[in-house]
């Protein structure tokens, strides 16, 4: 039943949510949040909730919801919606739909009685997209920017020890939505924590700590600026302690701001600055995240403490010098990922445990940097990055992708842009992990962005400024193409941050085009959409060859799949359109190097290997050259260097070189005591080295030259079919759209028209096929065999253990592996071809009793896939749940198999990994 209700509250200024310039009302200035313990009252938990069809409209739902939490994930009848570029509703800006879901949160709140005499502040950690606040029916304020906290003073509106009613009204669609078009799910609600906190009336309003360190002398320079928040602080002093030791004090003096139009002064409290040298202080870096405890006290003229706060600081220096980004004097390689706030059950609400797990996973896979695409994250995420060591590009909550080159040129959006940029910096200024500020993403160019960059540089000259569209928009206007277009960066950016460049463009930039005053750091590359991540090894080979290239951020960290409960009570992972949301962009949100539950995809395992901080090169015989790519760590301080020699995947010798001293950035040669090898038949020997869990390497030492294995009796006959097609991966459905071309060529049914010539010589099966002229860049050349019933497991000798393709196998090794048949494919949320293994020389299929049912050997390093589903079934399925249950399985043996590339957005599969016309011949034995 629906009815008109006063539940909308009395404070909804008519149409304010549709006005771009209506940024905030009565919202407190942004500060670094420094309160804890008994000074904080959490309001997280159940709230009474009413969903209206529009502000002040009809009640659609009345229930209880959890805060923090997106109401779009709490079954209130307003689902999430996914779009990439297009807005979720028709424009033009700043128009919003007439039907505009509005959530009214109510809660009885009792301020603790012992807060009497204190200042009381409400903090709403994140409200998507416009927030209105009332207490006992009295208007308090409003604000926009759904990714930064909003604070409102309640001191004169609440009575400690007496309950009051707090009403938070959130409007889903607003003018602010046009600034948050960020290739992610659109959610709504209070998605971060809500709390009250108290301060003394005379209090420390904010603390800014700049902890610089000279990399040449090791001398730190600590500058602490504290502001007080109350006029009654005559004679007050600020005292600063570092790691428990006093470092200085200063008297708080008047500060003010000038209203330019009236030339009037506005009191903003008092301020005091304390500076001190800290000799021999250890530097903070992603490798050694050394933090120090800073305590700031406000005392009155008699020395009595009025207020105190604590925070952690790290001493480091970040600068752009020439064409390099330097951290503590070293040109660090940025081995990063882009990260959305995402939880498969919570949407935009991510727990602290999940944030920490993300950073631990990144660190555990050799990553050292993260870009908060495309908005500031929860403050706790930065605390973890400070603690564990990650370089952060902190990005303002601005993306106008649907109106890329027009929206911000209108002056009415200027206040919102400046508020979003400045509030981000004011909140996150003390985090050593933040090494660059970013103005946002894909919002074109406008004078207000120059103004925002100028403000950042004036306020914080210790960090460079990044902006992806800082070169692109002007380049498009000038008709230039990459890499020439990268030479035209505007004033907003101190780095050249191309998006999805080809390796060829990077090489050309580094050799002929590069700017002497800006480093190139890819803000997005290697779009990791499901089965993707090709050529990562070639990207990093180019980066290591050229000092003008300094790494980048893979797009992106996590698949943005959401758990959806179906009518029968079961659950599935859902993507755009699955909730009935329209318009939508389907599975384009599934582009993480980890699954939604944080299971690493093969693309992350490949990335971890190609960015590993130790390089290896075989110099022949027993010689191996080690390169230490750490910036601040000697290799001897990392782990032992262990070695092993294998023949056909079995260890024949192993040992350790112990701790090998190699200075940061240096190279040394070591000798590995490889034993004499006697190889027979078609045996292959490999040498492997490993440095703890940080780095590994394998090279082929020798290969036996015996021509053919002994003849064997005829093997079992298996149903065999030519295979020239695979279920398209998303890189073939989007981007170049090869899937459409293959359909037009008739590749899915090519086995009916293209002749497969097959011969048998005892147990050996020999295939030959001619791919016609004009069939350029096809998916595979191989055969599909039906496996005997009862097969449940596979042993094989080849590259593994995980899925790999010709352009994504650097992170695998040749060895003997085993897996269940059901675990051979990768269960990407959007079904597609998966599970290929390269360099396979033999396979054994086993039943439930571990008996060998079938052996396939004498393969000449071929590509192999095992699956219970055909390519036709995979291509027809929208979700894994659509695939049929089946007992039997299939085996594909391919002479050639196409790579995966990253062509959904970015470069297609490179030439060496494509398949063209010609005659192909391959063989194997069945036993």
From TrEMBL:
UniProt KW keywords: Glycosidase, Hydrolase
UniProt record, GO biological process: lactose catabolic process
Enzyme Commission (EC) number: 3.2.1.23
Source species taxonomy: Bacteria, Bacillati, Actinomycetota, Actinomycetes, Geodermatophilales
Catalytic activity: Hydrolysis of terminal non-reducing beta-D-galactose residues in beta-D-galactosides
Superkingdom, natural source: Bacteria
InterPro entries, A to Z: B-gal_small/dom_5, Bact_Beta-galactosidase, Beta-gal/glucu_dom_sf, Gal_mutarotase_sf_dom, Galactose-bd-like_sf, GH, GH-type_carb-bd, Glyco_hydro_2
MF term (GO), any: beta-galactosidase activity
Protein name as it appears in the record: Beta-galactosidase
Family designation: Belongs to the glycosyl hydrolase 2 family.
Domain Beta galactosidase small chain/: 678-927
GO annotation, cellular component aspect: beta-galactosidase complex
EC primary class: hydrolase
């Amino acid at each position: 039943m629906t009815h008109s209700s006063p539940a909308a509250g009395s404070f909804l200024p008519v149409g304010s949510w549709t006005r771009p310039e209506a940024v905030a009302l009565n919202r407190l200035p942004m500060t670094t949040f420094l309160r804890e313990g008994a000074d904080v009252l959490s309001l997280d938990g159940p709230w009474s909730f009413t969903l209206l069809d529009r502000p002040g409209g009809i009640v659609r739902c009345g229930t209880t919801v959890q805060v923090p939490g997106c109401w779009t994930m709490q079954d209130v009848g307003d689902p999430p919606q996914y779009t990439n570029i297009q807005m979720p509703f028709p424009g033009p800006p700043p128009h919003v739909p007439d039907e505009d879901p509005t959530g009214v949160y109510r809660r009885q709140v009792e301020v603790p009685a012992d807060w009497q005499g204190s200042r009381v502040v409400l903090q709403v950690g994140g409200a998507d997209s416009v927030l209105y606040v009332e207490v006992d029916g009295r208007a308090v304020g409003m604000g926009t920017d759904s990714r930064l906290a909003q604070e409102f003073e309640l001191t004169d509106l609440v009575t400690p020890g007496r309950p009051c009613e707090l009403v938070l009204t959130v409007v889903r669609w607003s003018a602010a939505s046009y600034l948050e078009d960020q290739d992610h799910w659109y959610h709504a609600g209070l998605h971060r924590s809500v709390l009250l906190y108290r301060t003394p009336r005379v209090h420390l309003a904010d603390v800014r700590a700049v902890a610089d360190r000279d990399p040449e002398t090791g001398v730190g320079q600590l500058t602490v600026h504290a502001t007080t928040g109350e006029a009654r602080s005559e004679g007050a002093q600020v005292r600063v302690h570092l790691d428990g030791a006093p470092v200085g004090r200063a008297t708080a003096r008047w500060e003010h701001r000038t209203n330019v139009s009236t030339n009037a002064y506005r009191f903003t409290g008092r301020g005091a600055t304390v500076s001190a040298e800290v000799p021999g202080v250890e530097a903070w870096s992603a490798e050694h995240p050394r933090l120090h405890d800073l305590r700031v006290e406000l005392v009155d003229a008699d020395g009595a403490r009025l207020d105190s706060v604590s925070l952690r600081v790290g001493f480091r220096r970040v600068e752009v010098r020439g064409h390099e980004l330097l951290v503590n004097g070293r040109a660090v390689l940025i081995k990063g990922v882009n990260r959305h706030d995402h939880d498969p059950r919570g949407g935009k609400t991510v727990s602290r445990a999940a944030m920490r797990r993300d950073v631990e996973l990144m660190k555990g896979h050799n990553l050292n940097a993260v870009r908060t695409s495309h908005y500031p994250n929860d403050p706790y995420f930065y605390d973890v990055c400070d603690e564990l060591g990650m370089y952060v590009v902190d990005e303002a909550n601005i993306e106008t992708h649907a109106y890329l080159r027009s929206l911000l040129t209108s002056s009415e959006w200027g206040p919102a842009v400046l508020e979003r940029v400045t509030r981000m910096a004011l909140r996150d200024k003390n985090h050593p992990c933040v090494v660059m500020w970013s103005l946002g993403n894909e919002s074109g160019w406008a004078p207000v962005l120059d103004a925002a960059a100028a403000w950042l540089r004036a306020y914080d000259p210790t960090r460079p400024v990044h902006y992806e569209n800082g070169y692109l928009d002007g380049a498009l206007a000038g008709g230039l193409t990459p890499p020439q277009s990268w030479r035209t960066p505007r004033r907003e950016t101190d780095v050249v941050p191309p998006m999805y460049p080809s390796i060829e463009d990077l090489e050309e930039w580094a050799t002929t085009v590069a700017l002497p005053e800006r480093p190139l750091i890819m803000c997005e590359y290697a779009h990791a959409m499901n089965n993707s991540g090709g050529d990562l090894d070639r990207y990093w080979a180019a980066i290591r060859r050229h000092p003008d290239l300094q790494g980048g951020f893979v797009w992106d960290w996590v698949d943005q799949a959401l758990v959806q409960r179906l009518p029968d009570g079961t659950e599935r992972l859902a993507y755009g359109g699955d909730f009935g949301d329209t318009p939508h962009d389907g599975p384009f949100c599934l582009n993480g190097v980890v699954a939604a539950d944080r299971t690493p995809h093969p693309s992350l395992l490949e990335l971890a290997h190609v960015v590993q901080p130790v390089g290896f090169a075989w110099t022949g015989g027993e010689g191996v050259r080690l390169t230490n790519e750490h910036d601040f760590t000697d290799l001897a301080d990392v782990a032992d260097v262990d070695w092993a020699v294998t023949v056909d995947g079995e260890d024949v010798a192993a040992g350790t070189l112990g701790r090998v001293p190699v200075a940061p950035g240096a190279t040394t040669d070591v000798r590995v005591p490889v034993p004499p090898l006697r190889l027979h038949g078609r045996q292959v020997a490999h040498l492997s080295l490993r440095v703890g869990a940080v780095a590994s390497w394998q090279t082929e030492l020798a290969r036996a030259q015996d021509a053919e294995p002994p003849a064997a009796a005829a093997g079992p006959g298996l149903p065999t079919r030519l295979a020239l097609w695979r279920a398209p991966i998303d890189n073939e459905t989007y981007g170049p759209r090869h899937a459409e071309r293959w359909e037009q060529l008739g590749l899915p049914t090519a086995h009916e028209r293209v002749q497969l010539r097959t011969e048998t010589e005892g147990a050996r099966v020999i295939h030959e096929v001619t791919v016609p002229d004009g069939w350029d860049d096809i998916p595979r050349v191989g055969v599909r065999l039906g496996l005997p019933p009862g097969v449940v497991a596979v042993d094989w000798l080849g590259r593994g253990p995980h899925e790999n393709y010709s352009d994504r196998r650097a992170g695998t090794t040749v060895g003997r592996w085993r897996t269940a048949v059901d675990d051979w494919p990768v269960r990407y949320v959007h079904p597609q071809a998966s599970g290929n293994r390269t360099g396979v020389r033999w396979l054994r299929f086993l039943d439930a009793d571990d008996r060998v049912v079938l052996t396939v050997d004498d393969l000449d390093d071929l590509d192999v896939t095992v699956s219970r589903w055909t390519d036709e079934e995979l291509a027809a399925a929208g979700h894994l749940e659509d695939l049929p249950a089946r007992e039997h399985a299939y085996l594909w043996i391919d002479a050639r198999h196409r790579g995966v590339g990253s062509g959904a957005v970015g470069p297609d599969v490179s030439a060496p990994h494509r398949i063209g016309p010609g005659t192909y011949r391959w063989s194997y034995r069945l036993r």
